[in-house]
Amino acid sequence: MKFTGMKTPWLILVLLSGSIVSPAQIERIPKKTDSLNAGNNSRPNKKDIIKELDLSTGQQAKLEEIRQTIRMKRKTIDNNDQLTDEERTKQLRELQREQARYIEDILTDEQKEKFKSLRKKAIQQNS
Questions:
Q1: What is the pLDDT of residues 89-114, one digit of tens each?
Q2: What is residue 28's three-state secondary structure?
């Protein structure tokens, strides 16, 4: 079959129109950036906590050290194949408590109250 004249451009146009229209039909939902006030089930992220607690530069550095230490301990727990799911869950919960204690140690009394409030909100959202 030989395409001649106006048939070829129209055929190409029809075939391409499907590929041009399709991407426009994808619904894109913007990511919420403020997890403290978003009302969703996500936890507050590091930036939100620093902003909310108004941490000093020294406190931010100590917070990062705490996070790195906890991250390494978490990897150790996650990679321990000898733990049952129950034991792993128990150790991870204890690790969260440990992290909270370390963080509270670097905070002022006012910041501790805010931090406890943030933790309480996060726990309520996740349960």
A1: 999 999 999 998 999 999 999 999 98
A2: coil
| Sequence-distant (≥ 6) Cβ neighbours of residue 88 within 8 angstroms | 77, 78, 80
Query: Which pLDDT tens digit goes with each residue over 51-93?
Result: 888 999 999 999 999 999 999 999 999 999 999 999 999 999 9
Q: CA–CA separation, 66 vs 105, rounded Å?
A: 11
Report the alpha-carbon distance of residue 62 to residue 47 in Å, rounded.
Answer: 14
DSSP 17-67: HHHHHHHHT----PPP--TTTS-SSPPP-HHHHHHHHT--HHHHHHHHHHH
